[in-house]
Structures are given as C-alpha cells and as structure tokens.
Amino acid sequence: MTDAASPVPPIEFRSDVAVELVRSSASDADVLFAARVSTMGEQTLDDAASGAEASARDRGLINYLMRDRHGSPFEHNSMTFYVQAPIFVFREFMRHRIASYNEESGRYRELRPVFYVPAPERKLIQVGKPGAYEFLDGTPEQTALVDEATRAASVQAFEAYQRMLDAGVAREVARIVLPLNIYSSMYVTMNARSLMNFLSLRTKREGTHFPSFPQREIEMVAEKMERAWTELMPLTHASFNANGRVAP
C-alpha cells in the first residue's frame, strides 16, 4: 500500500470512435481467382486481375456470386482494423463470432480515463417495438441531463478505481467499478464475407432486403470500416449494395 494517493490523471470525454485499417490483403481479384478455380482450374492473381480496368465479365461474375449467395470466394482475403470505442460497443462486436479479436486488458494495464459521452445530436428517445425501434431527438433538457449524468458518473467511478489502485488493490479487482462508457481498443481481423455480415446488421440503409436497427455507436464504427473496405474492393462493395446489402 502506498503512503499517499497518486494524483488522478485528467479525465477525457469523447463523442467519437476511431477506426484504422492497419493491415490488409484484400482486392476484387481475390474473389475472381477463387471463384474461377471451379471452372478453369488453377489460376494466379495476376491472371484474375489482368488489365487496368475490371471487365464486364469480372463485374458480372462478382454480381452473380453476390446475387446467388455463393459466399466462399469472398473469404479469400483479410483485413485487420484497429478500433477505439467504448466498451459497450465491443460487447456488441463480440456477438459476431466470425472475426478474430484481441482487446486491451484491464487485468494487465491501468486503464486510461477516457469516457464516451453522447454528442448533442445523438437521438435519445426510443419509440416502437423490439426489432423495429425508431429513435427521435431528445429535448434540450434530456440532452443536458444525459451529458451531466454521464460525466458525473464517469468521474466518480474513475476516482474510486484510482483510490483502489493507490491502496494496492489488483487492477483486475479495481476495474469492476468502471462503467461501460470507458474506452477500450482492439484489433479485429475478418474477411469480406464476414464484414458484409457485420455491415448488414450494424448499419441502417434504405432499400435493404433485411432492415437493421443498430445502436448508433456501433454503426459509427461500422461506417468507418465500410469506407476503408470500399477502397480495397470497390466491385464487391458495389455488388453488395446492388443486391440489398445481404451477405452472401
């Protein structure tokens, strides 16, 4: 046990999430070469990607695979993202057992005092029935209450966490007082088929075959992941949208 408590680090509040594509081996050519082994035998990626522009035949094959849900050719690629988000977002992430995750551990390191607080434009009023929610803007009074209460609870919780650490309590015990809006970070690795499954459930778009009603905070992460993926596999992404955003 220490003789005196150490000063509490300054507490930071954020209303955003961060997503960085840190490693990838993913292109539309990966889909083409994997699919054509069925009819042409062994190919190289150079064969599948010949020419500066994709041919109509290439586009047609990717669209056929997407439309008729021949999904395995979309698995021959890999993307690793680094994500910073509040812990409650990661608990929703873990529901998708189609990716590999490594998250920072509160058992092994002291957690930083960074907490999520909803931005003023975050919708607060939930109406509708389970599976078909709609969210509406909160009143100014509700917005102020959410901001004030979230900040106060975060400060109180982190001060309690710090007091336990200063008293020599193990990190894995002290962390139990921390709220779900504290930020964590992780690496997540998945292929395009898995990512499409994730996006189909965690983004809300008009005209999709199967409407989704994601929590806004995980949708913020999904939107950033989708932007990175679009640049890597534009034909696959376009076909995903054209076919109702259904994972093959």
From TrEMBL:
Identify which cofactors the protein needs according to its UniProt entry.
Answer: FAD
Q: Where is the active site?
A: R202
According to UniProt, the reaction catalysed is: dUMP + (6R)-5,10-methylene-5,6,7,8-tetrahydrofolate + NADPH + H(+) = dTMP + (6S)-5,6,7,8-tetrahydrofolate + NADP(+)
Q: Which UniProt keywords apply?
A: FAD, Flavoprotein, Methyltransferase, NADP, Nucleotide biosynthesis, Transferase
The kind of enzyme this is, by top-level EC class, is: transferase
* EC assignment: 2.1.1.148
Q: In which pathway does it act?
A: Pyrimidine metabolism; dTTP biosynthesis
Q: Which GO terms describe its molecular function?
A: flavin adenine dinucleotide binding; NADPH binding; thymidylate synthase (FAD) activity; thymidylate synthase activity
- Fetch the PROSITE patterns from UniProt: THYX
Cross-referenced InterPro entries, in alphabetical order? Answer: Thymidylate_synthase_ThyX (IPR003669), Thymidylate_synthase_ThyX_sf (IPR036098)
Residues binding FAD: S72, R95, H96, R97, E103, N191, A192, R193, N197
Which Pfam family is an annotated match for this chain, by its short name?
Answer: Thy1
Cofactor binding note of this UniProt entry: Binds 4 FAD per tetramer. Each FAD binding site is formed by three monomers.
The entry marks the following residues as binding dUMP, namely E92, F93, M94, R95, E103, E104, S105, G106, R107, R175, R202
Xref: HAMAP family: ThyX
- Please describe what this protein does: Catalyzes the reductive methylation of 2'-deoxyuridine-5'-monophosphate (dUMP) to 2'-deoxythymidine-5'-monophosphate (dTMP) while utilizing 5,10-methylenetetrahydrofolate (mTHF) as the methyl donor, and NADPH and FADH(2) as the reductant.
Record note on quaternary structure: Homotetramer.
For this entry, the protein name equals Flavin-dependent thymidylate synthase
Q: Which organism is it from?
A: Microbacterium limosum
Top-level taxonomy: Bacteria, Bacillati, Actinomycetota, Actinomycetes, Micrococcales
This chain is encoded by the gene named: thyX
